[in-house]
Amino acid sequence: MAKQYRLGRKIIDIIEQHHGTSLITYFYQKAKEQGENVSETEFRYPGPKPQTKEAGLVMLADAVEAACRSLVDPNPARIEAMVQKVITNIFLDGQLDACELTLKDLHKIAERFTKILTGIFHQRIEYP
Length: 128
Fold this sequence. Notes:
The protein is an all-alpha fold. It is built from 5 helices and no strands. The chain has one domain. The longest helix is centred in the C-terminal third of the chain and has 18 residues. The N and C termini lie far apart (46 Å).
């Protein structure tokens, strides 16, 4: 679809890379629970991993936002913990190895994501 609408090579690259070779955890766990003999590689996106800082940032934003939406009570502490967990897991899985994001960048990104998501998910008072 991106090619059909001629979005440009850089945008298309980000779209293709933003899942990297991440494990599709939900479906992998479901298959394991059903007793299937499965390999993680069967439940990984085909890649490639993010090749630019921008693609890495989109990967992180997509994963963090989705994870925070799953929080039952998204208070600031839970949001911060989820942001840290998701970024750490993506880093440890090697998904950011080719995109030149530094640990300093990841720290700044985590701070910004936490601030933004805390603002989005803050509790509003109930109006009469």
